User: Fold DUF659 domain-containing protein from Cajanus cajan.
Amino acid sequence: MTDGWTDKKRRTIINFLVNSPKGTVFLKSIDASAISKTAEKVFEMMDSIVEEVGEDNVVQVVTDNAANYKAAGQMLMEKRKRLFWTPCAAHCVDLMLEDYEKKIPIHEETIPKGKRITTFIYSRTSLISLLQHFTKGRDLVRPGITRFATSYLTLGCLHENKGALIRMFTSNEWKSSRYAKTMDGKTIENVVLDKGFWSNIIICLKGALPLIEVLRLVDMDQKPAMGLIYEAMEQAKEKIQMAFNAIK
Assistant:
């Protein structure tokens, strides 16, 4: 299995892990900054790892679903007939959430507004204290399994704390603060007090939460999700259709 990430120096690091009935172990990390862009180079890198582990020991290679990895996976299967390449299920679902966020206007508009609210509050210490007073200590940001899942979980947190946020931005403490008089403060206040914003959050979550349930399934460590993923995706599609009155 491959797990790619970018470090503080903007280098592309790829971790290689090996899974067996005895569990998952870390094999090695590679600085792939110079080779991760083309399918040919990715293929050479993956092929060398298979060679190191031993082809007889490899049944399946799992990577993300980027075009270069997809092409490299096909090349690997052509060379080594006894193994299979499979895209990471979590990455596939995350790409669906990315399409929501970037290609559906209501998502494209609502998510940045939610992020502006959290960024505005959490970058100012006095506002964090004010927020926690009204939310009884609850946070507005919830880390997710993936980058785009986090966006929707944050929208969910905002909606859970809708009443507290409205009370906060209509309170005397807020109105007397110096931030209430700034352009940014007025913009955030208008968003929080906009009924349309909260309605749009509900619409966004109706489409996203069924997919996030699938993400949680494929990310669990208790048991393999391979035998469950297809049914889970069918159920997610049905939930989304029902949420929008079966409109395709």
In short: The two ends are 35 Å apart (CA to CA). The chain has two domains: 2-87, 93-243.
